[in-house]
Amino acid sequence: MLEGIEIIKPGDIEEKSFEILAGILGDREFSKEHEPIIKRVIHTTADFEYADLINISDDAVESAFNAIRGGGSLVTDTKMALAGINKKNLAKYGGQVYCFMDDEDVAAEAKARNITRASLCMEKASKNSNIRIYVIGNAPTALIRLYELISEGVVDPALVIGVPVGFVNVIESKEMIKKLKVPYIITEGRKGGSNVAAAIVNAILYMMGRD
Amino acid sequence: MLEGIEIIKPGDIEEKSFEILAGILGDREFSKEHEPIIKRVIHTTADFEYADLINISDDAVESAFNAIRGGGSLVTDTKMALAGINKKNLAKYGGQVYCFMDDEDVAAEAKARNITRASLCMEKASKNSNIRIYVIGNAPTALIRLYELISEGVVDPALVIGVPVGFVNVIESKEMIKKLKVPYIITEGRKGGSNVAAAIVNAILYMMGRD
To answer: In CATH, what class is A11-207?
Structure first.
């Protein structure tokens, strides 16, 4: 009845998956620091285009390590990324993940100002100096607001993970972040999403040591 | 400073996004019932391959409508899909979304039996007769266990959303579901994921009427 199914122990499935995807990537080489991030995003999406789309600034991984080791926290614009990030691993260093999307004050003020809740969430995050890593997996409006806050000197993130997905101002918002001196990990083009955002954060955490 | 950025009111962003993606899809035609599902998945991923990958059985959408209108609930194997599904819209009909992945009894029994938590979650769901829609966005092991439970007559879902992603038994698990008489929505091949799963559920809910 289950012919064609390969029997694999639960603990071995992830390793086997990475073996298969490495085989498909073939001879392609990535830097030692970037490879786990690129591979985890492909593991999460089965989309090999990400091998070409993920753009990591030189200092990004090191800066993220330092921020997390220092107990820094993260903010994200999506509850799905919040659900997907390995919060237990992060908590070992003292940090946590914030998502203000459901906060009543955010909803009310966003409506009053006729801006997106996601962009207001960036303002709210900028008031918490322990938030060192900004993870935008959904809304380009959040990434644009973050660009402004960085440009104005209001915040100076250790890392911007800028992987909004979609069709309105998505490409433009990522291009803006690349113009800043801030460490960044982005996905070129329209692709990205909350699953990609969570995969990038988890790849960084796993590079620092797994449970 | 924000040159290149199109200023769009928050409430208009989604509509504009769907306009752009419809333009990219061009003359391509889908059935009236399938189009909102396919377009929402592309909206969520910016991956136009899904126009070819999404496979919806004839009775799937109607069966889902009936189950939801009847107050039926959903189960999912991923906390990210749980986070992404519009639970407020679902609650209007009386249903809810279950995810047993973090349940302590599931973790203990899965370890004892050396099976994945996701497959055990399907067994747990099969004991709740109000769960009518099974949403698998991550683990092929869950989809395989569900196949067995359906084959054995233990459960008779109104809809199986089978969109696990990855490299180990992913394609095979989807092929198995297609052999059953159960209404299904799957993604052919390796692609899928929790974001795709949530997008499919939300598309169905929005077809039934939005807040």
So the answer is: alpha beta
